[in-house]
């Protein structure tokens, strides 16, 4: 081989060195020989056209032709010495006619946060970044046809998945002529991902058809993947899922539909809409919004979820609430009960029938009645262990013979510490309550309030009764 520097390179790109690109007439090869600067295809083409009219080159074939300002061809048997040489080019596509290869050009035109690193996936594998690329916008040639056969339908995907930033991805198929193809990928600071937790937090992902009930009254529904939050908050689980799908993670995600590297994972099912910011779901306003088919479970704040089942139906869990009375002391008798017209509603339910250890009401209790708790018939306190339709089951003591009205207080117990919390119940609508705290030696405390979707909290005032003996 007799490699010769392509003359006049610096005329068309002042950043090039005189010996950065070379040619060999005897083998009809071009190569990037030195330097790190990546030049445009047009600059190389222009330098070759400048070479082609030289007297000593007139008996050699022209190496390259231009079809458009962004589409070029290596002709007359001329080739690149190695695929790596294409890595030092940008700004246009090249068809290698001798090898029947096509190198399309792709460039980013989105707005990227400083430090964003782009990476490319083609046919399930990482495409080597262009030489000298560290971060920011990318302009690169990618082989999309090899030996006359399109690689994955000439599709490539550009990813941006830096922790602390919003994620993005875009897929495009280059035309048969190659061309210059824009990639609109953008990133910004993710206010819900401070990158403080740089681990998966024990969050696990299990793919496979599953049936789950979020409690919205629709019953069990199909999902494609279970994300176990390991007891974390939904916010922490979101960060963990971003960590799992970050650009550095080449570990496999075993999605039955398409096993792929975590950094390339996008969907539980190719027919579903994509959540680009984080492929398992987004986070906003204190709530996790799951991607379609993703069941998020075992989180500390399950009310802060909105999921989409495999059928594309949005599923929102019912809001679980409690009532709390603070400022009490052990031995204080505490009651929180619903009111009607400002007085305790002792006829919240009416007894329809009574059998051993069960009471059937004339109407079924709503979701805002705890599934096991206490109830009062007149002045007698009973406990129950379940509700089936309109029937309270496991009632103790045996209520046989009871008639009339009864009610279920939110709290009806003696305090064992500084606060008392009711059993959980499902929020249905606001309702009014009265709060009573009594114990000989303190003045009776009574107040009123409203239970809302945020639950209810009251603080008792314990004033010493200086008169009682």
Q: Could you explain how this protein is built, in words?
A:
With 469 residues, this protein is mostly beta strands. The protein has four domains: 96 residues, no CATH class; 77 residues, no CATH class; 112 residues, no CATH class; 140 residues. The strands form twelve sheets. Strands 5, 6, 9, 10, 13, 14 and 17 form a seven-stranded mixed beta sheet that branches. Strands 29, 30, 38, 41 and 42 form a five-stranded antiparallel beta sheet that branches. The chain has a five-stranded antiparallel beta sheet with strand order 35-36-32-31-37, with no helix packed on it. Strand 9 and strand 10 form a beta hairpin. It is elongated. The model has no long low-confidence stretch (mean pLDDT 96).
């Amino acid at each position: 081989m007799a490699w010769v520097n392509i003359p006049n390179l610096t005329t068309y790109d002042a950043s090039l060195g005189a010996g950065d690109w070379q040619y060999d007439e005897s083998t009809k090869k071009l190569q990037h020989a030195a330097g790190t600067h990546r030049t445009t295809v047009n600059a190389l083409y222009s330098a070759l056209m400048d070479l082609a009219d030289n007297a000593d080159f007139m008996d050699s074939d022209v190496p390259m032709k231009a079809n458009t300002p962004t589409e070029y061809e290596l002709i007359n048997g001329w080739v690149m010495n190695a695929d790596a040489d294409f890595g030092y080019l940008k700004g246009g596509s090249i068809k290698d006619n001798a090898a029947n290869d096509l190198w399309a050009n792709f460039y980013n035109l989105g707005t990227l946060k400083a430090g964003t690193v782009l990476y490319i996936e083609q046919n399930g594998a990482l495409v080597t970044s262009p030489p000298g690329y560290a971060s920011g916008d990318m302009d690169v040639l990618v082989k999309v046809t090899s030996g006359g056969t399109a690689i994955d339908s000439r599709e490539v995907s550009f990813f941006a998945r830096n922790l602390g930033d919003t994620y993005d991805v875009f897929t495009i198929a280059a035309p048969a002529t190659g061309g210059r193809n824009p990639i609109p990928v953008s990133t910004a600071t993710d206010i819900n991902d401070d990158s403080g937790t740089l681990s998966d937090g024990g969050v696990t992902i299990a793919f496979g058809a599953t049936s789950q009930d979020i409690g919205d009254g629709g019953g069990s529904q199909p999902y494609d993947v279970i994300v176990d939050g390991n007891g974390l908050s939904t916010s922490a689980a979101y960060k963990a899922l971003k960590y799992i799908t970050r650009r550095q993670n080449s570990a496999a995600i075993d999605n039955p539909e398409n096993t792929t590297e975590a950094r390339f994972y996008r969907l539980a099912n190719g027919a579903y809409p994509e959540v680009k910011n984080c492929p398992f779901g987004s986070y906003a306003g204190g709530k996790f919004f799951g991607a379609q088919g993703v069941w998020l479970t075992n989180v500390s704040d399950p009310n802060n979820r909105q999921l989409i089942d495999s059928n594309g139906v949005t599923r929102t869990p019912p809001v679980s609430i409690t009532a709390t009375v603070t400022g009490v002391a052990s031995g204080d008798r505490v009651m929180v009960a619903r009111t009607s017209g400002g007085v305790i509603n002792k006829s919240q339910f009416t007894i329809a029938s009574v059998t051993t250890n069960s009471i059937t009401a004339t109407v079924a209790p709503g979701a805002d009645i705890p599934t096991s708790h206490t109830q009062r018939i007149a002045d007698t306190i009973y406990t129950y262990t379940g509700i089936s339709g309109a029937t309270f089951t496991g009632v103790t003591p045996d209520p046989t013979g009871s008639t009339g009205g009864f009610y279920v207080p939110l709290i009806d117990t003696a305090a064992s510490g500084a606060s008392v919390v009711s059993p959980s119940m499902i929020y249905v609508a606001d309702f009014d309550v009265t709060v009573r705290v009594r114990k000989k030696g303190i003045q009776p405390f009574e107040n009123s309030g409203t239970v809302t979707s945020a639950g209810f909290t009251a603080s008792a005032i314990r004033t010493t009764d200086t008169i009682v003996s």
